């Protein structure tokens, strides 16, 4: 006689991939917390709030509006690149992914970029190695555009900026490597032969590198560079306006050069959100140009608040929506 327990269905256990997915999200959120704590500790909130109190509401709105223009233009660029790659996503869907990813922009080493590929995998079924070229091209586009702006602004600004040339060349070099499929694949192969490990991972990386060939399309490159160029110039112009309002007008192109140089210098350190490096470079360059510390320090804090912190705020607002939508569209 069989036991009644034999007919009792076994309790359902969460699928392994769900646990991995939750662990990945948990890890990303921990890194986000670490980045935010570091950013908060490095931000002079008292000086920032005091300086903001001296600005008119329309001035603050203007700074935030120029930053928002940058984010929306770059979100449109993300959509253009996603369409070129062949992803079956729409404009608002791509904008949701791009803006929601800003919540992870302060994770160490920008590993938060994984969250965008995670959402794409859920909603489209595309593996990470198929969507990685999109993230890589987006980063390369920023590097190329910022190098162009830096080179242009330094040539037009009176006096130039010490150290701008190597940073410009480094950004250009990284952008060229990241957008040359054969060159990038060759470098990946070289590193694999040097290490002799993780063959499967390097194979996927080579496949992702070869997928970059889809972006060597003239109109796509022009659109991507144009949107990024206007977007980053908008934030550089916001820095110029802020300095003028604070009584330290150093000229449009010098302000743009300092803003872009500092952003690049901070980003190249790999620190969360360019933490420390961007602020130090900005204050130092303003001081070298004769701007007193009582202006350069709060000006740096305010522009970081209306650019980096504003982007994080947008990301934190959109992140739950993107996470929920990806759960519904999971394949």
From TrEMBL:
Asked whether the UniProt record includes Transcription among its keywords, one would answer no
Topology of this chain in the membrane? Multi-pass membrane protein
Give the UniProt entry's GO cellular component terms: plasma membrane
Q: Where are the transmembrane segments?
A: 23-45, 57-76, 143-165, 171-192, 212-233, 239-261, 268-288, 300-322
Location within or outside the cell: Cell membrane
| Keyword vocabulary terms for this entry | Cell membrane, Membrane, Transmembrane, Transmembrane helix
Check the record and name the Pfam families matching this protein.
Answer: LPG_synthase_TM (PF03706)
| Top-level taxon | Bacteria
Q: What is its main location?
A: membrane
Q: Which InterPro entries match?
A: L-PG_synthase/AglD (IPR022791)
- PANTHER family (alphabetical): UPF0104 MEMBRANE PROTEIN MJ1595
- Protein name as annotated: Flippase-like domain-containing protein
State the organism of origin.
Answer: Thioclava indica
């Amino acid at each position: 006689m069989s036991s009644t327990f034999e007919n009792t269905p076994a309790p359902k256990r969460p699928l392994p991939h769900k646990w991995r997915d939750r662990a990945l999200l948990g890890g990303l959120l921990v890194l986000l917390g670490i980045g935010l704590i570091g950013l908060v500790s490095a931000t002079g909130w008292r000086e920032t709030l005091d300086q903001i109190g001296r600005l008119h509401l329309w001035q603050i709105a203007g700074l935030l509006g120029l930053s928002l223009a940058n984010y929306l233009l770059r979100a449109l660029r993300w959509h253009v690149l996603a369409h070129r790659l062949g992803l079956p996503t729409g404009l608002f869907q791509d904008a949701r992914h791009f803006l929601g990813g800003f919540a992870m922009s302060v994770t160490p080493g920008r590993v938060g970029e994984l969250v965008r590929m995670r959402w794409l995998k859920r909603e489209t079924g595309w593996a990470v190695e198929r969507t990685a070229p999109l993230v890589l091209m987006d980063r390369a586009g920023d590097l190329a555009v910022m190098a162009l702006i830096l080179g242009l602004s330094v040539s037009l600004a009176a006096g130039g900026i010490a150290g701008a040339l190597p940073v410009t060349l480094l950004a250009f070099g990284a952008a060229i490597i990241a957008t040359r499929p054969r060159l990038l694949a060759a470098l990946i192969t070289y590193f694999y032969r040097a290490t002799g490990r993780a063959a499967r991972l390097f194979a996927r990386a080579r496949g992702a590198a070869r997928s970059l060939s889809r972006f060597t399309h003239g109109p796509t490159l022009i659109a991507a560079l144009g949107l990024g160029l206007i977007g980053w110039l908008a934030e550089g112009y916001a820095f110029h306006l802020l300095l003028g309002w604070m009584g330290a007008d150093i000229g449009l192109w010098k302000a743009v050069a300092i803003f872009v140089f500092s952003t690049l210098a901070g980003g190249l350190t790999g620190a969360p959100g360019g933490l420390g490096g961007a602020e130090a470079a900005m204050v130092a360059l303003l001081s070298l140009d004769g701007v007193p510390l009582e202006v350069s320090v709060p000006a740096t804090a305010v522009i970081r608040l209306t650019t980096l912190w504003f982007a994080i705020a947008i990301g934190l607002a959109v992140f739950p929506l993107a996470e929920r939508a990806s759960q519904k569209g999971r394949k």
